[in-house]
Amino acid sequence: MSKMHHSHISWQHGHVTKQDRQKLNGHPSYLLWFTGLSGSGKSTLTIQLEKRLINQNMHVFILDGDNIRHGLNKNLGFSPEDRTENIRRIAEVSKLMVSAGVVTLSAFISPYRAQRQMVKDIMDDGDCIEIYVQANLRTCEKRDSKGLYEKARKGEIRNFTGIDAPYEEPESPDLIVNTEKYTIKQSVDRIYQYLLNKNLVKK
């Protein structure tokens, strides 16, 4: 997708800063980027974590891969180029959400390391926490309630991560949550403890 530069467009700066909104909300805002194979547990973790953070009176919002492709990114397919554009748009939306003072939970396969680095480059320094939701392919296939892996193996779905498209494991994520070793509750507890140690949640 070619980049266009419009010289007549300039960024409008308001008088209210991200820090002002964080102060108003009573907590910092940041992006938790959940990456992993389809079926690894990304969406389930974000739903349970959102509930826990909201119970702490925090402002939280989930950006989920399937949901975004129904609206904002419904014009994109699953080629490497479209997948990169999908992630770029999500990163830009995430940056706006974090600027609004909202803790943003993004659950996307995001299979390429370069894509995930792009997210970090778009976000302000320190605003992106990469969480690798780890589960092997066999386990993810067993959990596949939608039958997507089966369709991919039959060739009915093309460019499916783990079957005929690669997944590049994160080399140095901020946190690894193995959903084969840990239950969803234990996994959420691990994430929450990480955030607590970083002073990113209310005590």
Molecular structure report:
The structure is a single chain. With about 200 residues, the protein is α/β, with parallel strands linked by helices. It has one domain: Rossmann fold, CATH 3.40.50. It has 8 helices and 5 strands. It has helices spanning about 20-25, 40-55, 65-70, 80-100, 115-120, 135-140, 150-155, 185-195, and strands at about 30-35, 60-65, 105, 130-135, 175-180. A 5-stranded parallel sheet has the order 2-3-1-4-5, with helices on both faces. α2 (about 40-55) packs across α8 and α4 runs parallel beside α5. It is globular and about 55 Å long. It starts with 17 loop residues before the first helix and ends in a 6-residue tail after the last helix. The mean pLDDT is about 85.
Q: Describe the sheet with the most strands.
A: 5 strands, parallel
Shape summary: globular
The average pLDDT score comes to 87
Number of helices: 8
Q: Determine the fraction of residues in helical runs and give it as a percent range.
A: 40-55%
Distance between the termini: 44 Å
What is the CATH first-level class name? Alpha Beta
Q: CATH architecture, please?
A: 3-Layer(aba) Sandwich
CATH superfamily: P-loop containing nucleotide triphosphate hydrolases
Report the uncertain regions. none
CATH topology grouping: Rossmann fold
Summary of the model, kept short:
The protein is α/β, with parallel strands linked by helices and 203 residues long.
